[in-house]
Design a protein that fits this description.
18% strand; Glyco_hydro_3_C_sf; disordered N terminus; binds alpha-D-glucopyranose; Immunoglobulin-like; 25 strands; alpha/beta; 6-stranded mixed beta sheet; Rossmann fold
Length: 741
C-alpha cells in the first residue's frame, strides 16, 4: 500500500527555503559547517573498508558536538530516532541528520536487480518499483537512498553491471529518470518519499578489463555521448537531489578531486543544485591514487573540487577547519557545500519534523506489505527475457507431462535476492520450486550440483566454486524419467555486485558439465538462467531448445518464473546489455563504431575481426522473444514537418496469444564531424497487442535525438544522411533513410 500521506513543505514565516538556509548558515561556526559535510557509517554492516579509528565512541562525541551531518547504514525507526534525538536536542543548533542507505532495488520487499528491471523497458513499472522501495525505506527512518546507479557499462566482467541499466545511454537515461521520480515522488517532504542519488559520477562503469575500482581512461566523445547523458537527465528531468562521485580517476584525476566533473560540468554547466556525496572512502583514496600526499591534502582537493559531503574518510571532520583557517579552502566553498546539504534537509521536511520518518507503527505496517509483493511480482514478470524457444517447448500446458527440475538455484531462497540485499532478509525469496508447486505437483527435483561451496556473505570473497559432481547421477536419473527438464543454473547472488568482477563469465562450478550430461539423456531442456551479468553460454545457445533469462528477480522470483513457464504471463523483456559469445569479446556493445575495416572486402584477413571468434554477440541488445509473433510492416519516414522527422511502423500480433512488444527505433548518422556509432537507440515504446490486432507506432526525431556532443563538449546537429531501423531488437527491423537538411 502506497500510503497517501503527504505533507507539503510549508513556506515558513521566515521565508523561502533558501532564506531559511541562509539564516541558519549565518549562525553556524566553521566547525558546525564542516560537521554538516561529515557522514559516518552507522553501527551496522560496513559497505566498504571502514577506517580503523572510526569507533562508535568518537562518532557519538562528534555527533554531540554538531560535527556529523549524516549517517549511512543505520536502520530502524528506533535507531534513527535515537541518533536524531542527539543531533536535534543535544547540539547547539539542533540541525537534523539525514540518513542514507543503499536501497538499490527495494528494502525488505525486493524487486529484480536493476539490470533485470531494465530488461522490462517498462518505465512506469520501474517508477512504481522505486516508489515501493521508498515507502519501505522511509518506514525504517531512511530519507535518502544511494540509488539509482546510472553508470553505463559494456563489460560483463564488471560485477556492478547488475546495479545499472545496461549499455545504452538513451535507455539508461529514461530508466534513471523513472527511478529518481519513483524515489522522490511528488512531495519530498512527505514521510514516504526519499531523496535519490545518481551515482557514480563519472565513468565508473568503464573500469579497464572490467575489474572493479580499476583505472578509467575514456575519450571525450564517450564521456559526453555515453557516460554523461543519464546523469544529466537525472538532474535536469528528474531533479535528483544528490549525486555520488566515483572511485576512479578520469584522465588521471580522481573523480572526487575533479573540479571539471563536480563544478564545471555538474554544478555550473548542468545547474545541479543538490549536493555531491563522496563514495565510501573516496576522499582518502586520493592518497593511494597518488593524487594526495596525506589525508589533509586529500580533504583540500576534495573540498576545492566540489565534493560536498565526505562518506567515511574522516577527512573533512579532521582537517577541513584548519584548511579553511590556513586559507587553503575558502569559506565560500564551505558555505556553498553546506547550503546544498541544508537545502535538501529542508526539502525533506526534516527541519519541520526531524522524526517524520521515525514511525514504528508505520514500520510494522509497511515492511513486506502484500501490496509491495504484488508490485515486485509485476516487475519480476516483466523483467524476464525469453532468449530462445525452439519448437515452442514453452509455455508448458497446464497438464504438462512429468517435469524434472534440476539445479541448486531452483531451491535457493536467497541468491535470487541479488547482492544488494543489505536491508532485506536471507531466505525471503519465493524459490522456483515454490513457484512451480503453485502450478503443478507433477515434477521431481534434484540439485545436481551446488553453485559454490561453503557460506558467503556481503564482505567476503565467495568460497570455491563447487567441483563436486556427486549429485549428477540422481539428476540424470530424473531427467531420463521425465518428459521435459527445467534446469535452473547461473550465479550465486555474490558472483556479481560490488567488488565481484569475474574473468570467466560462463556458468560457475560444474554447472556447464551438469547441463551437458543432462542434455545427453533428455533433449527437452528449458534452461532458466539466474545471473547478475550477461553470461557467455555458446554451447547452451547452440544446443538447448529454450533459454529464459531471469536475472535475480527478488522476493517474487519463483512465482514470476512459474507464471512465464506456464504461460500465465507472456514474456516481454528485451536485453539491456549484449550477451557475449566469449569473455574475449568484452567489452562488447551494439552502439559500436564502424572502424575503417568493418567488413572483409577482399577475402583476406586485413579487416577488424578475431581469427577465433565472431564479432557478433551471442544475444543482441534489445533481443527478447514472445509466445506470440509480432510482424512489422509499412515503415514510413516523413521529413516534411519542421518539428522533426516523423517515423512510423505498423506492428501486428500474428500469433494466438496476447503479448507485449517493445518496438525500438535506431538511427545511424552516416557521416559527421565526429564518427558516430553504426546504430543508436533513439526511441522505444512498449505496448500490449491482442491476437490479430495491429498498432501504428510513431516516433518523432528532433534535434535532441539527431544531435551529438563534439570533442569540445558542444551539442551539435549536422545535416546529412541518416539510416533508420525500427524493429524488435537492435538487429531485426525495417530500414529506411532520410536526409536531414
Ligand atoms: C559503496 C558503493 C556505493 C554505495 C556506498 C555506500 O562502496 O560504491 O555505490 O552507495 O559504498 O554503501
Amino acid at each position: 500500500m502506497m500510503n497517501a500521506c503527504v505533507s507539503k513543505q510549508p513556506e515558513n514565516e521566515t521565508g523561502s527555503i533558501d532564506q531559511q538556509v541562509d539564516a541558519l548558515l549565518s549562525k553556524m561556526t566553521i566547525e558546525e559547517k564542516v560537521g554538516q559535510m561529515n557522514q559516518y557509517n552507522g553501527f551496522y554492516d560496513a559497505t566498504g573498508p571502514a577506517p580503523s579509528e572510526g569507533g562508535a565512541k568518537i562518532k557519538y562525541e562528534h555527533l554531540r558536538k554538531g560535527m556529523v551531518g549524516s549517517f549511512l547504514n543505520v536502520r530502524g525507526a528506533e535507531q534513527v530516532r535515537a541518533l536524531q534525538k542527539i543531533a536535534v536536542e543535544e547540539t547547539r543548533l539542533g540541525i537534523p541528520l539525514i540518513f542514507g542507505l543503499d536501497v538499490i532495488h527495494g528494502h525488505k520487499t525486493l524487486a529484480p536487480i536493476p539490470l533485470g528491471e531494465a530488461a522490462s523497458w517498462d518505465l512506469e513499472a520501474i517508477r512504481q518499483s522505486a516508489r515501493m522501495a521508498a515507502v519501505e525505506a522511509s518506514a525504517i527512518g531512511i530519507n535518502w537512498t544511494f540509488a539509482p546507479m546510472v553508470d553505463i557499462s559494456r563489460d560483463a566482467r564488471w560485477g556492478r553491471v547488475m546495479e545499472g541499466a545496461g549499455e545504452d545511454p538513451y535507455l539508461g537515461a529514461k530508466i534513471g529518470v523513472a527511478r529518481v521520480k519513483g524515489f522522490q515522488g511528488d512531495d519530498l517532504a512527505a514521510n514516504n518519499t526519499i531523496a535519490a542519488c545518481a551515482k557514480h559520477f563519472a565513468g565508473y562503469g568503464f573500469a579497464e578489463a572490467g575489474r572493479d575500482y580499476n583505472t578509467v581512461d575514456v575519450g571525450t566523445s564517450t564521456l559526453y555521448n555515453i557516460i554523461f547523458p543519464p546523469f544529466k537527465a537525472a538532474i535536469q528531468e528528474a531533479d535528483v537531489k544528490t549525486v555520488m562521485n566515483a572511485f576512479n580517476i578520469l584522465n588521471g584525476v580522481p573523480a572526487t578531486g575533479s573540479t571539471f566533473l563536480q563544478r564545471d560540468i555538474l554544478k555550473d554547466e548542468w545547474g545541479f543544485e543538490g549536493f555531491v556525496l563522496s563514495d565510501w572512502g573516496s576522499v582518502m583514496e586520493m592518497i593511494p591514487h597518488g593524487f594526495a600526499a596525506d589525508l589533509n591534502e586529500a580533504a583540500m582537493h576534495a573540498a576545492n573540487a566540489g565534493s560536498d559531503m565526505d562518506m567515511e574518510s574522516h577527512a573533512y571532520v579532521n582537517h577541513l577547519v584548519d584548511l579553511v583557517k590556513e586559507g587553503k579552502v575558502s569559506e565560500d566553498k564551505i558555505d556553498d557545500a553546506v547550503r546544498r546539504i541544508l537545502k535538501v534537509k529542508y526539502e525533506l521536511g526534516l527541519f519541520d519534523d526531524p522524526y517524520r520518518y521515525c514511525d514504528e507503527a508505520r514500520e510494522k505496517e509497511m515492511l513486506y506489505h502484500e501490496d509491495h509483493q504484488k508490485t515486485v511480482l509485476d516487475m519480476a514478470r516483466k523483467s524476464i527475457v525469453l532468449l530462445k524457444n525452439e519448437g515452442a517447448i514453452l509455455p508448458f500446458a497446464k497438464a504438462q507431462k512429468k517435469i524434472a527440475v534440476i539445479g541448486a538455484l531452483a531451491d535457493d531462497k536467497t541468491s535470487p535476492l541479488g547482492s544488494w540485499r543489505i536491508g532485506s532478509d536471507d531466505g525471503t525469496a519465493f524459490s522456483v520450486l515454490e513457484g512451480l508447486k503453485e502450478k503443478t505437483s507433477n515434477f521431481t527435483y534434484a540439485k545436481g550440483a551446488d553453485v559454490v561451496t561453503g557460506d558467503v556473505n556481503f564482505v567476503l570473497e565467495l568460497n570455491e566454486n563447487t567441483t563436486d559432481k556427486s549429485g549428477f547421477n540422481e539428476a540424470i536419473r530424473l531427467a531420463k524419467a521425465s518428459e521435459v527438464v527445467v534446469m535452473v543454473l547461473g550465479e550465486h547472488g555474490f558472483h556479481s555486485g560490488e567488488a565481484r568482477s569475474r574473468t570467466n563469465i560462463g556458468l560457475p562450478g560444474v554447472q556447464q558439465e551438469l547441463l551437458e550430461e543432462v542434455y545427453k539423456v533428455n533433449k527437452n531442456v528449458v534452461l532458466v538462467l539466474m545471473n547478475g551479468r550477461p553470461l557467455a553460454l555458446p554451447w547452451a545457445a547452440d544446443n538447448i531448445p529454450a533459454i529464459v533469462e531471469t536475472w535475480q528477480l527478488g522476493s517474487q522470483t519463483g512465482n514470476a518464473i512459474a507464471d512465464v513457464l506456464f504461460g500465465e504471463y507472456n514474456p516481454s523483456g528485451k536485453l539491456p546489455m549484449s550477451f557475449p559469445r566469449s569473455v574475449g569479446q568484452c567489452p562488447i556493445y551494439y552502439n559500436k563504431y564502424s572502424t575503417g575495416r568493418p567488413v572483409n572486402v577482399e577475402g583476406n584477413v586485413f579487416w577488424s575481426h578475431y581469427i577465433d571468434e565472431s564479432n557478433d554477440p551471442l544475444f543482441a541488445f534489445g533481443h527478447g522473444l514472445s509466445y506470440t509473433d509480432f510482424e512489422y510492416a509499412d515503415l514510413k519516414i516523413d521529413d516534411s514537418d519542421p518539428s522533426g522527422i516523423k517515423v512510423s511502423v505498423v506492428v501486428k500480433n500474428n500469433g494466438k496469444v496476447a503479448g507485449e512488444e517493445v518496438t525500438q527505433l535506431y538511427i545511424h548518422d552516416k557521416v559527421a564531424s565526429v564518427a558516430r556509432p553504426i546504430k543508436e537507440l533513439k526511441g522505444f515504446e512498449k505496448f500490449m497487442l491482442e491476437p490479430g490486432s495491429s498498432k501504428t507506432v510513431s516516433f518523432t526525431l528532433s534535434n535532441a535525438e539527431l544531435g551529438f556532443y563534439d570533442n569540445q563538449g558542444e551539442f551539435i546537429v549536422e545535416p546529412g544522411m541518416f539510416d533508420v531501423m525500427v524493429g524488435t531488437s537492435s538487429i531485426k527491423g525495417l530500414t529506411g533513410s532520410f536526409e536531414l537538411k
